[in-house]
TrEMBL record:
Organism: Mucilaginibacter galii
Single GO term (MF): DNA binding
Listed name of the protein: HTH hxlR-type domain-containing protein
Domain HTH hxlR-type: 15-118
Transcription found in the keyword field: yes
UniProt keyword list: DNA-binding, Transcription, Transcription regulation
Upper lineage: Bacteria, Pseudomonadati, Bacteroidota, Sphingobacteriia, Sphingobacteriales
SUPFAM superfamilies: Winged helix' DNA-binding domain
Length: 125
């Protein structure tokens, strides 16, 4: 784990501002699926069923709601093609790509945490 030494602690105002910023971000990105959906669509544009197959465990109802929320917050766009039957393609917007560093750090932390859990389980055995 990377520990930053000799860095001063934030003052009360900085801490309060950081907390507000984090709460704002979590309000928009809350839920189990939103970041995974963004990551999936940053990789490539997809149809509804393709997304549901990639994110095993998400119900159609929850997926529809999460896609709608992400579209309202400009993280994804929905393109309707007048074919028979109608084709709808979801894709990441430029705004969703502003989360690149966040997703990278979260991925690195998740890997680090998984290793910590594995090590902990070996010690218990």
């Amino acid at each position: 784990m990377k520990v930053i030494k000799n860095e001063p602690l934030p003052n009360k105002v900085e801490c309060a501002n950081s907390l507000k910023n984090v709460l704002d971000a979590l309000y928009v990105l809350n839920g189990k699926w939103k970041l995974a959906l963004i990551l999936s669509l940053v990789q490539s544009s997809k149809r509804f069923n393709e997304i549901q197959q990639e994110l095993s465990g998400i119900s159609a109802k929850v997926l529809a709601k999460e896609l709608k929320d992400l579209e309202l917050n400009d993280f994804i766009s929905r393109k309707v093609y007048p074919t028979t039957p109608v084709s709808i393609i979801y894709e990441a917007t430029g705004y969703s790509r502003t989360l690149k560093n966040v997703l990278g750090e979260l991925s690195a932390w998740g890997e680090q945490h998984r290793e910590k859990v594995k090590l902990s389980m070996r010690k218990q055995s």
